[in-house]
Write a structure and sequence with these properties.
By secondary structure, this protein is mostly beta strands. It contains no helices and 16 strands.
Length: 227
C-alpha cells in the first residue's frame, strides 16, 4: 500500500524480493509548492493488516526533450550529440539513461538540468530513431506525436557518401577553383514525400599526411549525384 491509501498487487520473487507497480502521484491542494513528492510504502499478506510504513518511494517530474543537436550522423556512430530539454537532473532520479531507438546508453558526463551529452551509437540500417530518456532506467519518455517523426526527439542515421570522381583533379594553388564531385548517396536526405531536407553537405581537403587545410566548404547541389 502506498501512502496508506493506494493498494496495488505484488508479485513475490523470493523471501526478500517482491515487485509491484506504483500509483501516480496526486498532489495535495494545500501543497502549493509540490514539496510532498513521496509516498510511504507498507506491505500486507491479507489486504487488511499492514506492516509499519517505514519505506518511502520518491517521484520525479516527467523530463522533456526539446531538441537534439546535431540531429543526424553516420551509421558508424560516435557523433557528439547534445540533448536539450528540462528536468534532466532532478534530486529523485536514481538511474538516468538515454535510448537511441531500443538501445540504452548512459550520458558521457553528468547531465545538467537542461543538457545531456552522448556519443551516438552505431546503427545497422540508416533512418530515423526516436531518442528517449529515463530517470529510473525503466520508464522512458514517449514520442511526442504517435506514428510521426518529431524533430525534437529524433536522430537520423545516414550512409557514408561515396565519391566516384573529382573534376578537375588539378588547380592553381591560389584556390577558388570550382570542383565537380560525382558520387552516390548524396541524395539520401529526403522526407517521405521525396522533398529534400535542409541539410548542408560539406567537403574538406586533406594533404598527404591526412592534415586538414582550408577548413570546411559548403557544397552547392547541381543534381542528386553531383555537387
Amino acid at each position: 500500500m502506498f501512502n496508506h491509501k493506494y493498494l496495488t498487487n505484488a508479485t513475490i520473487e523470493s523471501s526478500t524480493v517482491m515487485y509491484c507497480d506504483t500509483p501516480a502521484l496526486e498532489y495535495d491542494e494545500d501543497d502549493t509548492d509540490n514539496v510532498h513528492d513521496w509516498y510511504n510504502v507498507s506491505v500486507s499478506a491479507d489486504g487488511e493488516s499492514f506492516a509499519k510504513a517505514t519505506a518511502k518511494f520518491f517521484f520525479y517530474d516527467e523530463p522533456v526533450i526539446k531538441s537534439i543537436d546535431p540531429w543526424l550522423g553516420p551509421m558508424s556512430g560516435k557523433t557528439e550529440v547534445d540533448i536539450i530539454g528540462k528536468g534532466f537532473n532532478q534530486t529523485n532520479m536514481c538511474d538516468f539513461r538515454i535510448k537511441f531507438g531500443m538501445t540504452e546508453v548512459r550520458p558521457k558526463e553528468k547531465q545538467t538540468e537542461s543538457l545531456a551529452k552522448i556519443d551516438s551509437l552505431p546503427a545497422k540500417i540508416p533512418g530515423a530513431v526516436v531518442v528517449s530518456i529515463s530517470g529510473n532506467g525503466q520508464q522512458y519518455t514517449h514520442d511526442t506525436t504517435l506514428h510521426f517523426r518529431d524533430a525534437s526527439n529524433t536522430f537520423e542515421y545516414y550512409q557514408n557518401f561515396f565519391v566516384i570522381s573529382v573534376w578537375p583533379t588539378q588547380a592553381s594553388n591560389t584556390g577558388n577553383t570550382p570542383i565537380l564531385l560525382n558520387g552516390i548517396l548524396f541524395d539520401q536526405f529526403k522526407y517521405d514525400n521525396s522533398s529534400n531536407k535542409n541539410v548542408e553537405i560539406k567537403c574538406r581537403f586533406l594533404d598527404s599526411s591526412g592534415t586538414v587545410f582550408g577548413g570546411e566548404i559548403v557544397m552547392t547541389k547541381l543534381k542528386d549525384s553531383q555537387y
